[in-house]
Amino acid sequence: MATIPTTVTIPATGNNPQGQPFSTQVTAILNYASPVADAAPVTSIEGYFVSYVGNPPANVRSIPVGEPVTIPFVPAPATTPPSPSTPLPGRPTPTTPTIPGHSGTTTGVEVPDPSQTGGLNPAKKETNGGAIAGAAIGGLVLGALIGFFIAMILYRKRQQKHNGSENGTYIVSSSVTESKGLHSVPPPAPAKDSGIQLDKFLLDATPDNEIARELHALGSLIQVHVENNYHMYPVKADPRQLALALKQLGLEDGQHSGIGGGSSLSAETIAALAIEPQTRYIALQHVISHVLFSSIDTSSRSRLSMLPAPVAAFLQSVAPTEGGRTNEEASAIALHQWRVLSTFLLHPSRSQRTPLPPSDNAVNAQAAGLANALDTFLGYFSSGDSGQQKSHLQAVIAETTKLGYVLLSQPSDWRFVHNDGAAARNNVAVVCAGLVKVTSRDGARYAAPLQVVAPVVVQV
Question: What is the dihedral of CA 391, 288, 231, 267, to 10 degrees?
Fold first, then answer.
C-alpha cells in the first residue's frame, strides 16, 4: 500500500454516518488502537488528506488514499503552542489545534495554516507566479535603466576628456577623481627663458664701403667683358626680335616697373642702340648690368636668379602684395626676417658669422643657364670664338654672384637701382647699377632709401 501524505486536518464540526465525531475516529485511527478502528471508512473531510508517518497499519487500509471529502467546515485557529516534535524539512512547523465540541487532545494530527501552505492552495500558486514574473520584468527594466545611466556617464567623461585635450586641458580620471571629483589640470608651465639672444649668433654685417668697392669692381669687369668679346661691325638683325629677346630677359621701361627696378630705356630703344655700332657697347653694358644685378636682388623676383636655389624658389612663389601701405610694410618686415633667418640656417659654419659662401657646383650650373639666356641677345654681336665669349661671361656672372651672397647675408635689406628717374627724362643709359640700403639692421625701413652706390649712367 502506498505511503499516505504526512498531514491531516480535522474539520471543526460534523459526524460520520455512525454518529461518531470525525476527530475521535481519525484520532483513534492515527493512534493505531481504538474501538472505532473498524468503523465505516472516513470518506468526507473536505479539501484535506489523512496522513501517517511511515506505512499505515492494516486496520486503516479501508481509508482511501488522498481522497477528498465533501463536508464543509471552518478550521479552528491555533491556540496552543507549537508541537515539540521536529517538523520534516521543507514543511511548516505543526501546531496543535483546538477542535470545538471535543475536550480531548488530538495526537499526531497536524492542522496547517492555509495561508502558509502554498503547496495546498492553487490560487496562491497563481498569485505567487504572477508576482515572480512581475518582479523579473521589473528587475530587467531596472537593470536596463542602470546600464543606460552608466553608459551616459562614461560617454560624458569621454567627451570631457576629448574636449580638454583639444583645448590644452587634461582631465584627471584616476582614483583622485573619486574623492575630489573631476577637475582640469593646466598644461605644464613653459621652461624658463634660456637667455639666448639670437642677434648675437646671426651673421655679421659687411661694411658699406667694402660692398661699394665690390660693386665698382664688377662694373669695370662688365665693361672689360664687353670690349673684349663683342665687335663693332654692322649687323643685320631684326629690331623687333632683339626687343622681344630683351623683354624675355626682364628689361622693361622703368615707368612701368617702378623707379629703380625697371630699365632706364625701353626694349625697343635698347635694341636700336645695340644695332648702331657707335652705341653698341653702351647698350650691351646696360643689358648685362641689368640682368646680372637683378639676378642677385631679393626684391626683383627674377626668374633668372643666381641666389641659392631654396631662396630663389621661395621668392618666386611669394604671392603679390595686396594694396595698401600697411600690407606692404607687413610683407616687407616678414620677408626681412625670413631672409635673415634663412641665410643663417643655410650657412654651413654659422659660428663664423661670415657671409654665406656660394657653392661652386650650384653657381656654375646657374651661371651656364644665365649665360645661355643672355646669348639670345648678345649672340648677335659676339666676336671671334663664341666659346671663349661664353666662358668669360660665365666668369663675370660667378663674380657677381659672390656679391649677391654677401648682400643676402646682411642684417639690412639692400636693393639695386637700374633707373633713378632722372635718367629716363634725360635719355641716358645705366651701364652699372647703383645700390641703396632700404632698412636698418633690425629691419626698420628708412623713410627714403639710403644710397650707398650711385648708378653709373651714360648719355645716349
Answer: 140
